[in-house]
Amino acid sequence: MTDTRDNIYAAADPLKEAGLFRFDDNVAKVFPDMIKRSVPGYTTIVAMTGLLAQRYAAEGSRLYDLGCSLGASTLAMRQNLQVADCRLVGVDNSAAMLERCRSIIDTDTHDTPVDLVCAKLQDIAIEEASVVVLNFTLQFIPVAERDAVIERIFEGLRPGGVMVLSEKVTFEDPHLDELNIELHHEFKRANGYSDMEIAGKRAALENVLLPETLARHKQRIADAGFSSCDVWFQCFNFASLVALKA
Fold it and tell me: Are 125 and 95 in contact (CB under 8 A)?
């Protein structure tokens, strides 16, 4: 089935009509197309999330997809599991996204159980986890609440577990920051978005998506207790980190 085309910000006056960005039913309908055309490397990050789950999933553990949206990372993990008695937990605070997520997961033939929870991930207890994934999720959480989220994940991970954190990032050097913003906009133009659509979505995400530097993410992860952390993928101002619990 072909993804529904993202035309949300193609209105005559998207700055006026779109408002703040929300993961509502309109976004859920076009989300696969939106994220592939907006996030460089998204498909690679999701696929490699599956391989990391294959490597680090432990028998009898849970694997969490925090901010699961339509379940792309959930499915990537499920389809790569090679150990028994695991359980997948997908968490999202958008009922519209989870409704579509369930319909997608129900078409998958793999048999690892998947629980879908509609809740703020700040309220979720992480228990007996071997893998925790936050693919472009932390950036939507208030900055003051992010340390506690990462600390809770660390506490709920088993020794030897892994956290995957993918985020839009900013750069301390203003010249590099502007360069990567411009390159990202060129990426979106190459994928068929107009300047009007780019400006509309950027305005809608202002004060909703709050990026931080890689240094800030690494410091937060180290402060939580992770023994190792570094970037394993980056394209422009989008990066994914892997963090290990000794």
Answer: no
CB 243 within 8 A of CB 229: yes
65-117: per-residue pLDDT in tens? 999 999 999 999 999 999 999 999 999 999 999 999 999 999 999 999 999 99
Per the structure block, which two tokens stand in for 218?
């690494």
For β-strands 87-92 and 62-66, DSSP reports them as parallel
| Token pair of 36 as six digits | 């592939």
pTM exceeds cut of 0.70: yes
C-alpha 74/C-alpha 87 separation (Å) is 11
The candidate with the shortest Cα–Cα distance to 115, out of 165, 56, 152, 74, is 74
- 176-182: long-range pairs with CB below 8 Å, 24+: 177/237, 180/236, 180/237, 181/237
Gap between the Cα atoms of 16 and 154, Å rounded = 41
How far apart CA 184 and CA 28 sit, in angstroms, is: 22
DSSP state of 140: G
